[in-house]
Amino acid sequence: MNAKSADQEEAFGAAPHERPVPRISIGAFVEFPDTGAALQRAGADRRLAKAHVNVQLGGIQACIDHYHGQVTPNLLIVETRLNGRAALDELDRLAEVCDPTTKVIVVGRVNDVELYRELMRRGASEYLVAPLNPLHLIEVISGLYLDPEAAPIGRVVAFIGARGGVGSSSLSHNVGWCIAEELRINTTIIDLDLPFGTTGLDFNDEPTQGVADALSAPERLDDVLLDRLLVKRGDHLSIFSTPAMIDREYEASVDAYESVLDAVRQSTPCVIVDVPHVWTPWVKATLIGADDIVIVATPDLAALRNAKNIYELLRQHRPNDTPPRLVINQTGVPKRPEIPAKDFAETIGVQPALVMPFDPQLFGQAANNGQMLNEVAPKSPTAQGIRTLAEVVTGRAPQVVQKSTDLFAFLKGKKKA
């Protein structure tokens, strides 16, 4: 790997505000409604899903009264109307009821550097100036419990089809390959369709028990076992494939799926998750917990209805995240009535990230050869669409590779001169 690609990979992954907060208790006591609303919005965020957040009115005095003689939570967030010496005196009274292990975030209305320094000296973890931004608050909370020496975690991009047969799996595999091979970002593709997954077919590999084994005993999934279960495809791509067999039933808890995804993102900057078109608690939790989501649909009524339902549910559960991205696939099928892409997008309320034309010959040839679309026809409009989607979900563009000078041709030309 050259220096440029190493720097690019190092910079890729989940941003600070995207890191999930551990299982902690948070007590918040506010003075103003806008601060309470920001805390409620942050508390409903997926990154605080494991934390228990309790928001009350009354500020620091209410906090003192509430916890007098009681154990304080892992984190207290308190708001004060005061400033200067009065604010410090109020914090001193709070310290008398706080357990030594409790962290404290103070929210104020005055951007006062001296007050900030004095609060830090007295043991406050952070001082924030209202109005609060929910994402910034999540980032601050995460920073209090994140090991500064811990390796960065990967970014999870989940693909799901609005209905069966829309090409979600094929697109997720091709986008994952493109991110690895053309953007040079270490990527793992996880196929979660255990009985019918197609990663083995698409990459011309034998199906393995990889994901099934990991889900059956997620507590054993350390770096060594994970490395053994993954199938390596080149320098930057790994495949976490499925058994693709129906002679057994695959049952795993929501926590098992979460543990497997967490383990993979600990070791890989980019994680592409191929989510099957089913609706179960683990599918819903996987989508809500992803950093980015791609909904793949075809321009028909059933796909429109389902895509709209999925989009609205995810927007409701992910109010602080980028909206799910929409891909309209298989457009322009001869003699098939279609909903125009413009009308399709307007009904859902989002502009499509990509509109892919119907190209059965290219898709069929790639599938039968066990190759990616960009390997079969790298200059085709379909291949360019895959590159575009890879750039959109990563925020990256392919690096320009400088051609090396042909030294022998150069010397030959010098001799002729």
Description:
This protein has helices at residues 3-11, 33-43, 59-67, 84-95, 113-121, 134-145, 168-181, 199-202, 210-216, 223-229, 254-265, 281-289, 301-317, 341-348, 360-369, 373-376, 381-394, 407-416, and strands at 25-30, 52-57, 75-79, 103-108, 126-129, 155-161, 187-191, 231-233, 237-240, 270-275, 292-297, 325-331, 354-357. The chain has 18 helices and 13 strands. The longest helix has 17 residues, at 301-317. Residues 1-10 and 399-412 have low confidence and may be disordered. It has two domains: 23-145, Response regulator (Rossmann fold), CATH 3.40.50; 155-394, P-loop containing nucleotide triphosphate hydrolases (Rossmann fold, 3-Layer(aba) Sandwich). Helix 2 (33-43) links the parallel strand 1 and strand 2. The strands form two sheets. An eight-stranded mixed sheet has the order 8-9-7-10-6-11-12-13, with helices on both faces. The two termini are 38 Å apart. Helix content is 43%, strand content 17%. The chain is of the alpha/beta class.
Q: Using the CA coordinates, give the radius of gyration.
A: 26 Å
CATH architecture call of the largest domain: 3-Layer(aba) Sandwich
CATH topology of the largest domain: Rossmann fold
For the secondary structure, the number of strands is 13
How many domain units?
A: 2
The CATH homologous superfamily of the largest domain: P-loop containing nucleotide triphosphate hydrolases
CATH first level of the largest domain: Alpha Beta
Number of helices: 18
How far apart the termini lie comes to 38 Å
| Largest pleated sheet | 8 strands, mixed
Q: Detail the poorly predicted runs.
A: 1-10, 399-412
Mean pLDDT: 88
Pairing-aware structural class of the strands and helices? alpha/beta
Strand order of the largest sheet: 8-9-7-10-6-11-12-13
Helix fraction?
40-55%
What share of the residues does DSSP label as strand, in percent?
15-25%
Overall body shape: elongated
